[in-house]
């Protein structure tokens, strides 16, 4: 039996990215967010093929995962929607740092470099991990 993780949606993620999803998808976003939270509560049940472990230090992992909005006919990967989370295995907590569509990150260039820069600038706790 796996232990449930607590899930915290960071205010930065809420203010800067999630509000766009709420406005665009309305009730479908509520279903999607509930689904993401339920999925992250059972982190130990997620297979390694469902997530990309970006870095790991002590009991903390930075993970990128794809998701699709409820009711949309696209695969998780094909949707372009991403979620960056910090998993604290020692205290069984998941912090949702970023929820974005790949086109939400401004400017040209590498998507990974852009989201890592956003994390470094807004989450000092994880600055050294990304």
Structural notes for this entry:
It is a single chain. By secondary structure, the protein is α+β, with helices and mostly antiparallel strands. It has one domain (6-126): RelE-like (YaeB-like fold). The protein has helices at 11-25, 27-41, 76-79, 111-122, and strands spanning 6-9, 52-57, 60-67, 81-88, 93-101. Strands 1-5-4-3-2 form a 5-stranded mixed sheet. A hairpin with a 2-residue loop joins strand 2 and strand 3. Helix 1 packs across helix 2. The protein is globular. The mean pLDDT is 90.
Task: Please give the structural blueprint.
Layout (H helix, E strand, L loop, with lengths): L5 E4 L1 H15 L1 H15 L10 E6 L2 E8 L8 H4 L1 E8 L4 E9 L9 H12 L8
Parallel strand pairs: 1-5
Antiparallel strand pairs: 2-3, 3-4, 4-5
Pick out its properties.
130 residues, alpha+beta, YaeB-like fold, 4 helices, 5 strands, 35% helix
Give the proportion of residues in helices.
Answer: 25-40%
Rg of Cα set: 14 Å
Return the CATH class. Answer: Alpha Beta
What does the average pLDDT come to? 90
- Percent strand: 25-35%
CATH superfamily: RelE-like
Which outline best applies?
globular
Sheet/helix structural class: alpha+beta
Order of helices and strands: EHHEEHEEH
| CATH topology annotation | YaeB-like fold
Which ranges are low-confidence, i.e. pLDDT below 50, for 5 or more consecutive residues?
Answer: none
Which oligomeric form is depicted? single chain
């Amino acid at each position: 039996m796996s232990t449930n993780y607590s899930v915290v949606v960071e205010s930065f993620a809420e203010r800067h990215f999630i509000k766009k999803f709420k406005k665009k998808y309305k009730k479908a976003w509520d279903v999607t967010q509930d689904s993401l939270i339920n999925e992250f509560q059972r982190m130990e049940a997620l297979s390694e093929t469902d997530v990309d472990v970006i870095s790991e230090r002590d009991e903390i992992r930075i993970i990128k995962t794809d998701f699709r909005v409820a009711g949309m006919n696209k695969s998780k990967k094909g949707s372009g929607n991403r979620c960056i989370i910090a998993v604290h295995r020692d205290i069984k907590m998941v912090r949702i740092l970023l929820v974005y569509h790949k086109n939400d990150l401004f400017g040209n260039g590498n998507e990974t470099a852009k989201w890592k820069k956003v994390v470094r600038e807004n989450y000092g706790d994880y600055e050294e991990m990304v």
